[in-house]
Design a protein that fits this description.
259 residues, six-stranded mixed sheet
Length: 259
């Protein structure tokens, strides 16, 4: 009998020659990439490298001009966002999509209920309502907001809102969690807190993030992909990426990657 611990992890997400054109401009140019299940995989690159466009192609908010995307072997290239969410892709974006007047708990509870496909009205069984509420409370605790359940989203700090967005995404029970520049606008303390939250996510949640904060990337990721001018430049371990002459040339004059 084969020991499951000795099996190689499978590719959860595969991109095959994916492109996105805007007229004559190729924002993403024939990118092929595999994301192994259970990894913390970061996509980095200088401004204009095509990172955000690539994420939009994976999440489904933009259609690919060419190529194909496979989730766990299934072609999802033409599927809309809601179908991809149903298959296990969740995304947090640079710009908040929270309901600012509602409490943290209400934001997460709405996502829990949507995932369950049910409401919490009088007609629902009491057990279902209790289960949904317990799930929402547990998710807020999981992302480091144990004392903010009843706080309106508008009153949370920027860092706390990003933590709340992760909780909302986790409520959809994702297999693949896409984080689009999660540390943008954060203080070092807030970034460190969010890094801890993401690092502590269960192994069945694969994380793919784009981020400019390389300290966060190299602390969190075990696989790093570098993009440059819309193309895939290299993929490797953080140490391999730091030492790559190609990466140094792409970042020359932009930021330091050898620390």
């Amino acid at each position: 009998m084969i020991d499951p611990d000795l099996l190689e992890p499978l590719d959860l997400l595969e991109l095959r020659g994916v492109s996105r054109d805007f007229g004559s401009f190729k924002a993403v140019d024939a990118v092929s990439l595999a994301v192994r299940a259970g990894t913390r995989h970061a996509v980095i690159g200088p401004n204009g490298a095509g990172k955000s466009t690539l994420f939009s192609l994976i999440s489904g908010t933009l259609p690919a001009t060419a190529g194909s995307l496979l989730l766990d072997g299934r072609d999802v290239t033409r599927l809309p966002v809601n179908r991809r969410v149903g298959l296990g892709i969740a995304t947090t974006f640079q710009h908040s999509s929270l309901f600012m007047r509602e409490t943290a708990l209400e934001n997460v509870l709405l996502a829990v209920v949507r995932r369950a496909g049910s409401g919490l009205g009088i007609g629902r069984p009491l057990r279902s309502r209790r289960t949904a509420l317990a799930r929402a409370h547990a998710l807020l605790d999981q992302v480091g907001l144990p004392s903010r359940h009843d706080t309106p989203a508008a009153e949370l700090s920027h860092g706390e809102r990003r933590q709340l967005e992760v909780a909302v995404a986790l409520a959809t029970e994702p297999r693949l969690l896409l984080l689009d520049e999660p540390a943008a606008g954060m203080s070092p303390v807030e970034t460190a807190r969010l890094t801890e939250v993401v690092a502590a996510l269960p192994g069945e949640v694969t994380v793919l993030l784009i981020e400019h904060d390389l300290d966060m990337v190299f602390e969190l990721a075990n696989v790093v992909t570098v993009m440059h001018l819309g193309r895939h430049l290299t993929t490797g371990s953080p140490a391999e990426v730091r030492a790559s002459p190609e990466v140094q040339a792409a970042y020359l004059g932009t930021m330091e990657v050898t620390r």
